Amino acid sequence: MENPFYITGIVPEPYFCDREKETAWMVRTLENRAHILLTSPRRMGKTQLIRHVFEQPAIRDKYYTFYTDIYPTTSLHEFVLFLSKEIYSVLVPKGKAALGKFLAGLHSLAGCLGYDPVKGTPTFDIKLGDIHSPELTLEEIFNYLETADKPCIFAIDEFQQIAYYPEKNVEATLRSHIQKMNNCLFIYAGSNRHILENMFNSAAKPFYNSAEEIYLDSIAKDVYTRFIEEQFEKAGRRIASEAASVAYDLFEGHTYYVHNVLHNAFAYLNDGSTIEKSDIEKTLSDILEEKGHSFASVMNQLNYQQKETIIAIAKEGKAVGVTSIAFVKKHALKSPSSVQYAISTLLDKQLLTYHNEGRAKVYRLADRFMEKWICQTY
Ligand SMILES: Nc1ncnc2c1ncn2[C@@H]1O[C@H](COP(=O)(O)OP(=O)(O)O)[C@@H](O)[C@H]1O
Ligand SMILES: [Mg+2]
CB of 35 closer than 6 A to ligand 1? Predict the structure, then answer.
């Protein structure tokens, strides 16, 4: 029996939950020829949503759709490599003419493109060291997108990475290319709202006001729990309504975490009995036990101030006013400035995230399992 709760790879359509409004909005926005900035906490479902949007007939039948996740990249060289690799892999199945057009335009890499004599097709085995002039290659890539035989949509996931590239003026260079393009729309996605909002909402920045913004929140509880119960039913199994509700509430509907618990509950509790609330709790505690070792080693690498700060924030769940005297006192921390300093490191290490609620900054742990583990361990 296939597990309907996918926690890796692309979620196949029958197992994709909701996102109807967001999907419709994105399709409409793309059809109106606007670029999109898609943000959400990590693991809320941005990547899945983009894949889902690409599968909509209005998009699938009209555009070449590209998707790359640039999280691992730290230079323009890699950025260029990731984009061209993705274009290559999308075009290979489209046939020789489509692919040939792309490769013929890559003059700066011409010497590095191979040829498979058996299949009679070009091969793409570019190494980072082959890219001598990333700016030039970038221009060629954008040139291709501009002149492709179909309109294009390019989704660049974890787009905030470009802010860390050492090359000068990356944002300005990209923006000036994109501004001139008529044939390609971009979906910029990412979980680092802080950096992305700064890129798109500050008047002094190149990407200012250049995309329609959408923030992805949790799926509504009634929709999500109905989906959960239906998935069990379709598999000839049963989950108590209360159990589905508890799974949702444990993580306030944060998709990956809810899905992970249900995935395990589905996989390990298959003796035909109904899944109850206690089964969900047991499944969670098994997950925390299994992940405990790696959380412990993360904690091990933090200094004392960072540790007491992350523990305080985990216990709050959503922590507001973290540098106030009240917060420092409540959690017996050293001082507001030590908390401030610890937080900036914890943000850099991506252990914390934050968003604004009105004027207030709300901090919380990036990993909801780690949050629960810290609460039970300290
Ligand atoms: N609409 C959805 N339907 C089913 N599962 C989903 C959905 N959105 C997210 N998920 C689950 O959450 C996980 C994380 O989603 P992902 O799109 O990778 O998040 P993000 O890109 O925001 O970090 C997926 O692997 C899947 O288990
Ligand atoms: Mg993603």
Answer: no
